[in-house]
Structures are given as structure tokens and as C-alpha cells.
């Protein structure tokens, strides 16, 4: 019987230092001030202002965005790698449902094909439903057929439109 009492008391004695340590450490961790963390809207606004967008336009654009960091990263990527005006890039990125893909499309076409107008690449990528696939089409067609980038963009824009099931799926009767 003594054996069981001794093991219980030793188990309790070994838990006491951890309990004391917990009482000393936990309140100091909870009371420590947390560093200020920027939220996505703050980062978006700061990025757009750094990219050359005016204060009022940057704040309004970030406030309207569902995913503000995607919009700002799109604008920053396009402005950093092309000769597009920041306000044009913001207009395209804020209206696109895939702003990261839009930036990839514009930058890929602009950097791969010589004599490409950055504004044309931006407008055509903005109109595409799948911008990355569109940029692959433009680069592939221009390289294989040895045509100008503007002709390649026009061909790939038209090629993406394939109406299917144009007949009505129901019969209206009175």
C-alpha cells in the first residue's frame, strides 16, 4: 500500500514545477502587446500608391475590391514589367475576375514577343475569359506562323468564341 501512495506523491511533485512555470509564463505572454499587422486593404492601398496611383483612387479601388491584395499585386506586376500606365492597369485589374492571371498574360506576351504594344496586350488579355491560355495561344501562333503580335492576338481572340447549343432547351407553350 505504501508503494501506491509513494508513486502518487512523486507524480504530484513532478507536476508542481510545470504548474508554477505555467502561472508565471502564461500571463506575461497574454499581456505582451502584439505588433500591428496590416490588413489586406492597408497593403493594397500602400502598394497602389507606391505604383503611382493617386490617394483617392487607390483607397476607393481597394475598398471596392473583394480580394484587394490580388488587385494590387496585378497592378504592381504589370506596371513593373511593362510600359502600361498605372491607371490603365488598375482599371483592367479591378474589373477582371482573375487579376493574377491577367498580369501573367500581359507580362508573358509583352516579354516574349518583340514589337508588342503593352496597351494592346492589356486590352486583349482583359477581354479573355482564360488569360493564361490566351497568352499561350498568342505566343504559339505568332511563333509558329511568324506573324505580328497584333495579328496573333486578333486570331486568338476570335478562336475563343465557339457558340454551342444555340437552340433553345425548352419549348414554350401556352
Briefly say what this structure is.
The chain is an all-alpha fold.
Can you lay out the helices and strands and say which pair or pack?
Blueprint: H1 2-31, H2 40-51, H3 55-64, H4 68-81, H5 86-95, H6 99-112, H7 118-127, H8 131-145, H9 149-159
Helix pairs in contact: 2-3, 2-4, 3-4, 4-5, 4-6, 5-6, 5-7, 6-7, 6-8, 7-9, 8-9
Summary tags:
mainly alpha; 9 helices; 72% helix; 174 residues; single chain; elongated
Tally of extended strands? 0
The ordered H/E elements are HHHHHHHHH
Structural class: mainly alpha
How would you describe the shape? Answer: elongated
Distance between the termini: 93 Å
Uncertain residue segments: none
User: What is Rg?
Assistant: 29 Å
Characterize the biggest β-sheet: none
Portion in helices: over 70%
Strand composition percent = under 5%
Mean pLDDT score: 83
Distinct helical segment count: 9
Describe the 3D structure.
The protein has helices at about 1-30, 40-50, 55-65, 70-80, 85-95, 100-110, 120-125, 130-145, 150-160. The protein has about 170 residues and is mostly helical. Helix 5 (about 85-95) runs parallel beside helix 7 and helix 8 (about 130-145) crosses helix 9. The longest helix is centred in the N-terminal third of the chain and has 30 residues, at about 1-30.
Amino acid at each position: 500500500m505504501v508503494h501506491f501512495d509513494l508513486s502518487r506523491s512523486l507524480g504530484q511533485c513532478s507536476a508542481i514545477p510545470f504548474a508554477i512555470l505555467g502561472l508565471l509564463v502564461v500571463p506575461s505572454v497574454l499581456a505582451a502587446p502584439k505588433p500591428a499587422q496590416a490588413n489586406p486593404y492597408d497593403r493594397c492601398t500602400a502598394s497602389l500608391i507606391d505604383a503611382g496611383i493617386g490617394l483617392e483612387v487607390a483607397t476607393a479601388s481597394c475598398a471596392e475590391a473583394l480580394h484587394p491584395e490580388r488587385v494590387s499585386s496585378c497592378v504592381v506586376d504589370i506596371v513593373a514589367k511593362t510600359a502600361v500606365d498605372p491607371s490603365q492597369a488598375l482599371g483592367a485589374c479591378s474589373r477582371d475576375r482573375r487579376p493574377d492571371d491577367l498580369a501573367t498574360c500581359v507580362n508573358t506576351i509583352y516579354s516574349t514577343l518583340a514589337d508588342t504594344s503593352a496597351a494592346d496586350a492589356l486590352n486583349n488579355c482583359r477581354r479573355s475569359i482564360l488569360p493564361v491560355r490566351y497568352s499561350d495561344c498568342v505566343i504559339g501562333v505568332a511563333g509558329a506562323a511568324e506573324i505580328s503580335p497584333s495579328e496573333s492576338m486578333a486570331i486568338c481572340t476570335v478562336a475563343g468564341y465557339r457558340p454551342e447549343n444555340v437552340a433553345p432547351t425548352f419549348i414554350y407553350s401556352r
